[in-house]
Amino acid sequence: MPQPRLELRRVSKSYSDGAQPVEVLHGISLAAEAGTITALLGRSGCGKTTLLNLAGAMDFPSEGEVLIDGRATAALSDAELTALRRTRIGFVFQFFQLLPTLTVLENVELPLLLAGARNSAATARDRLRWVGLEEKASGLPYQLSGGQQQRVAIARALVHSPDLLIADEPTGNLDTAGGDQVLALLRDAATRFGATILMATHSAEAAAIADVRVSLRDGRIQSLERR
Amino acid sequence: MKLLRTLILRPLRRDLLRTALTVLSVALGVAVVVAIDLAGDAATGSFRSSMQTLVGRTDLEIVANGGVDERVMGTLTGLPVDAKFAPILEAQAVIPGVGAVPLYGADLLGESRILLSKPLAERVRGNRISFNLNGRGVSYTAGPKVDGTGDFLVLDIAEAQRALGRFGKLDRIDVTVSPGEDFAKVDRAVRAVLPAGYLLNRPGTRSEENQRMLRAFRWNLRVLSYISLVVGAFLIYNTISISVVRRRAEIGILRAVGAARLTVLALFLAEAALLGVVGGALGVALGRVLAEATVGLIAGTVNALYTTSRPAAIALGSTEAMGGILTGALVSLGSAFAPAREAMRVAPTEAMSRGAREHHASLRWKRGLAGAFVLAGMAWAAAQVDPLGGYPVGGYAAALFAIGASALAAPTLVLAVNRATRVATRRRAESLLAGRSLTASLARSSVVVAALATAIAMMASVGIMVGSFRETVTVWLDSQLRADLYVRPAAPSAAGEYPPLPRGIESVLESVPGVEAVDLFHGVPFHYHGERATLGGGRIEIVRRYGRLRFLPGENRDAILRSLPGADRVIASEPFANRHHLRAGDRIVVPIGARNVSVTIAGIYYDYSSSQGYLVMDRATLLRYLPDQPATNAAIYLSRGADAQRTARELELRTAGYGVTVAPNRTLRRTAIEIFDRTFAITWALEAVAIVVAMLGAANSLLALVLDRRRELGLLRYLGASAAQVRGMILTEAAFLGLLAMLLGLALGFALSLVLIFVVNRQSFGWTIQFHPPVALLAGAMGLVWCVTVLAGLYPARVAAALRPVDVIHEE
């Protein structure tokens, strides 16, 4: 059996809120294979975003391990984590998080610039073409619709061809048409680029494209359903 | 009050570092103003003669250019008026271990001993007191101690005249009208018997003259001290703007639940007032300390350039303290008014984001640029205005307008430079983000650029002015100091004081082998139209033959100097001519000794040794009016091939016992430049404080930018930025700010230097300064300022790099 690209082993996460620690996740175990989409479902506050942060190596478990390609994220140095984010992980957020002062092309190019990659503009333009927004390259984010902005955000998240894409409510701020376009892109990303996608969502449409659906409740896995 | 606590005080406490930086900016600004005022008062305020404490009240004083003839005393005492006439002589005595103290000659009814003031008697023990008078050692038996403030000595008038070699001469006669006597009658009677050239002044005229003489010096110093406050004002504006932007949502909620517009306005003005009052109070305390350090510098300049002054104790009264605090509060309120008014206008439903506001701000740059052009035009117009009441008000206004113009042009510059560097900055993520961030927060970054630019401009302009002045003086010294050796009394000499050379020294000097010509100069303190100046007599033929005196363009040096001997013709120094609005060919009446002499201004020459100025005539002409006037210094020209060192040694040998010093040309030049540099030391100190204030502002603003862009910085970490890259981005932003400020600051500084050189200096001191920007010095200073600006970004950069992305990414 091949090694899962992302694996969470008995992961718990608690925050210290004054004297009383607040446990957000309890003993989560989960694995995601290359080219699959895993949807995290559940009410607000159930721990979806915390789990995404742990999976994306932006945060670390209080107990248990998060492994990306078999390496525990907590054991990595800051430089290794930065390198990991530059090469292996992409993020998509509910509110797009595009930088308003950069053009559309520059927003997409940014991860490559941060990584010091060559031909960054050409690669970014290629990704924009993929999301169907090449003609908007020199525009500014505020000139785009919400759906278009999220497509730009997806292009940015995939510009460095990451193995792992973390998406937090990617359609949560979009209308149906915009949401459908974004979901189609995510599906295509998994298929075409072989990206492993971990997505938190409330939307049934989003959940419908997932290969694995994980329901969370109060920080625990309530159900896990494979398609 | 509760609103104030929750909306204003709590955030101030939460952002303690930024609050402290703002308060410190105000404190430094106020401290400099308070320090310069206190030190200026202490250094120049004590012109009241110590004699007044000895002789009591004086109603009138009789003075004359070249001294009062003591025979006048006989006439005065014979007048049928009930008044007391007291003859006075003044000189400086140098007491070993004590230094220079005033020595007065007064009518002590033939007392042969010397009287010491009580404070001086505490320091000088023993029955005999020895000191140096006009370069010669003298010794007296100490008599009774006398009341009076400060150190001074008193001799009987006859003994004083003998010791000073001023037989038959007095410096002044003090007149005290007896109670019950008609003052006007005494005034009329005295005037009636005084020779035409004598002046009858109210007491305090001398002090007023001194204060008037120092007016320009003190005003310019005071204006310089306001620079830090101006820079601080920009920063208060920035702090309150940030405060308004951050609390926009809160303001909207407040308005929605019923808060009146004026309540919102009052809240933000209260924040400014609080920062101003606390900063002002701190500034007063700091100013008191700084004044101690400054008073010596100011007193040194006053002594070197104007008149003898003994620094008094620094007096910080409640008026000064309240004034300082009020200054802090008013500057704060003034600069906070615009952002506070903006807060007042927030509609209850409005929830405008920072980005949208900044976008609006970026659209306003054209309006700002138009305003900048209007203000620049006003600056040009103001620079053409003549001085008002002796003050270069137009020059100051021009400087303020120019600062305003540059502040309004700042957004355009930020946008233009960003556009121009777009391709270059795009290559690296740090520079791309830093450049865009500055335009994204245009309103705020423009204020920081304007504040920094103002400080840099003041430094650059004063640098250019001082550098140009120094170069002008150096060139002038070359043309002015042409003699090989200079001889002067070995007595302390402050500006405007002319201790005499011993009589008969002329023949001694001329007898030394190698000496070709001796130009004896007679300097006489001189009152002209309520101002002090120097009347001089020199051997004009020698000046013509050996000197290189430079006259204003179009004036023929040789013809002018040839016209002086044997005629009532004078040459005037440029400051004297400008001060009294004189031109070559004008005839003026000059009181000399007992006569009013009508003289013609033959020419106007460049001179930088005194802002009060000189009138110089041929020595023979001067001695015709003041026959006993002693020479005060001598310029010696050596014959070709003579060994200057050997001649100087020979001169020293032959004049031993005369109480004179012989100085070679280069020593005089060096001393002159040293005095020049010392004079401007305080200017540099003031500049440094302004730069420090600007740096605090830069750090403060960068910190605010970091805190406001937490989410964006967090996002960068998600996108693969390392902590070092985030740090680098903030430092690059600081470097950009510094670069923009330097570009604007240099342009503004260049304009301000023109105002300083050709308007303020000319109107204040009356001299022409040639424009010589010290390029290397400016480049070094700019490099240093730029480095310090980048350093100011270190702490904000550290804060940015330490942010936890997961904590900040979901904020908004």
Task: Give a written overview of the molecule.
The complex is a heterodimer of chains A (227) and B (812). With 227 residues, chain A is of the alpha/beta class. Chain A has a single domain (34-48, 77-226), classed as Rossmann fold. Helix content of chain A is 34%, strand content 29%. Chain A has a 6-stranded mixed beta sheet. In chain A, helix 3 (104-115) packs parallel to helix 5 (146-158). The radius of gyration of chain A is 17 Å and the shape is globular. The two termini of chain A are 19 Å apart. The model of chain A has no long low-confidence stretch (mean pLDDT 89). Chain B has 4 domains: 1-48 and 209-352, no CATH class; 50-203, no CATH class; 354-481 and 672-812, no CATH class; 491-658, no CATH class. In chain B, strand 16 and strand 17 form a beta hairpin. Chain B is built from 31 helices and 20 strands. The radius of gyration of chain B is 32 Å and the shape is elongated. In chain B, the strands form 3 sheets. Chain B has a 9-stranded mixed beta sheet with strand order 16-17-15-18-14-13-19-12-20, sandwiched between helices. In chain B, strands 3-4-8-5-7-6 form a 6-stranded mixed barrel. Chain B is of the alpha+beta class and 812 residues long. At the A-B interface, helix 2 and helix 3 of A face helix 17 and helix 27 of B.
